[in-house]
From TrEMBL:
Listed Gene3D superfamilies: Aspartate Aminotransferase, domain 1 (3.90.1150.10), Type I PLP-dependent aspartate aminotransferase-like (Major domain) (3.40.640.10)
Signal sequence residues: none
Name the record gives this protein: Aminotransferase class V domain-containing protein
Record organism: Guillardia theta
Cofactor(s) this protein requires: pyridoxal 5'-phosphate
Molecular function via GO: alanine-glyoxylate transaminase activity; L-serine-pyruvate transaminase activity
Superkingdom of the source species: Eukaryota
Gene Ontology cellular-component terms listed: peroxisome
Entry keywords, A to Z: Aminotransferase, Pyridoxal phosphate, Transferase
SUPFAM superfamilies: PLP-dependent transferases
């Protein structure tokens, strides 16, 4: 946002692994409104990829709509879309931005954006946006032509990925119970994984399982262990484990994903991964 000349206020958690305080968000929204300079946008990260923290998206949307109803709500759903509950119309979300490669279960390469009618109407016709590709007014006529099966943009779309996206979305809807069933499958998987980790004495980076993503677990290295003691042995068994990302504590934890196909079609994969992880991490 700053690169486009916007004034940005960041509300961050006090400690790594916690959620930002909603009271601070409310204070910022109210203060800006009282000063007659209400925020135009509130951007919420659905799941922080670096820490595994899951935002209370519904509560933040309700808070924003109550305090500053004209503020557009933008959700970064790269690490949360499909696997975490998100109800765009019901919660009053204006923009959802995500990628194809996480819980949707499609190869990487697509940026997926969904926007509300209110958001489209708020974009001025002559907005001074210094980037063609970031200007929705440039793209709307093209997308409308595509919907009518008319050529409008002289480039080759990633048709293989678009086709894969359709298949991935159809598979989500085919889950028993529909999207609610898909959300619930990820919740149950997280609970199962965290129960095994806790029983083995392994600790999460997040302050509790309740604020942890259903798609991702960030796990602290046991005392006396480091990345070289866990990641290479797991790779030898066929598992790819990601290192920590947060600059304040990147060397203190690692990250394990549990989402998509492995949750709904091959849950035994996640059970085997967790068993191998416990065995290696807790070995003397």
């Amino acid at each position: 946002y700053k690169q486009y000349g916007m004034e940005v206020t960041s509300v961050a958690p006090k400690v790594v692994g916690a959620r930002p305080l909603h009271e601070e968000v409310e204070k910022e929204l109210k203060g800006a409104k009282q000063s007659s300079r209400p925020y135009k946008i509130i951007s919420i990260t659905g799941v922080d990829t670096s820490t595994g923290v899951l935002a209370d998206l519904k509560a933040l949307c309700e808070l924003t709509r109550s305090v500053s109803p004209d503020t557009l709500i933008v959700v970064d759903a790269v690490c949360s879309a499909a696997g975490e509950e998100l109800r765009m119309d019901e919660w009053g979300i204006d923009f959802v931005l995500t990628g194809s490669q996480k819980a949707i279960g499609v190869p990487p390469g697509l940026c997926v954006m969904i926007c509300s009618q209110q958001a489209l109407e708020r974009i001025p016709d002559k907005a001074a946006i210094p980037n063609y590709f970031a200007n929705l007014r440039s793209w709307m006529p093209i997308m409308e032509s595509y919907e009518k099966r008319k050529p409008s943009y002289f480039a080759t779309p990633a048709v293989n990925l678009v086709g894969a996206l359709r298949v991935g979305l159809e598979q989500l809807l085919e889950t028993p119970g529909g999207m609610d069933g898909y959300f619930d499958a990820h919740r149950r998987t997280k609970d199962r994984v965290h129960k095994k980790l806790s029983s083995a004495g392994l600790q999460l980076l997040t302050e509790s399982s309740q604020v942890s993503s259903n798609l991702l677990s960030c796990i602290r290295y046991p005392q006396g262990k480091a990345a070289g003691d866990i990641l290479p042995p797991m790779k030898e068994r066929g598992w790819i484990i990601a290192a920590g990302l947060h600059p304040a504590c990147a060397g203190e934890y690692f990250r394990v994903g549990h989402m998509g196909y492995s949750v709904t079609k091959r849950p035994e994969w996640i059970d085997k991964l967790t068993d191998d992880l416990v065995e290696i991490a807790c070995s003397k």
